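In this section we walk through a basic example: taking a raw amino acid sequence and producing a predicted 3D structure, encoded as discrete structure tokens. The instruction is simple. Fold the sequence below.
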Amino acid sequence: MSKNNKTLSDFKVFEEMGSLIRENLISEAIRMNNTANFMDSEEFKKKIRCLSNWQIAEITKDIGLWHMNRMFNVSYKDSERDKLKLRESEKIMEELMSRIKRGH
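The resulting token sequence is shown next.
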């Protein structure tokens, strides 16, 4: 009987660990969704709880990659816009220098 209780106790420990892992996966998925603004927060919370741990981990990874790609694209666009502004500014400076030289 003692051996059966120990086995049952061990099973309970693994069950609790599984629940803890699942809750951590869900928390991380929700945090990633909130950071990335991927989906409405309340809708995401409902849907994520219906998935397996494996699916939750995959979706969290995919949202993270999507967010990083989006941020990279925004940074790239900002960089391109800054380069264009710099070129325009250089042209204006060249025109001003040209006018100044012609004026003297």
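Looking at the output, two observations stand out. The first helix runs from residue 2 to 36. The mean pLDDT is 84. In the next section we compare this with other chains.
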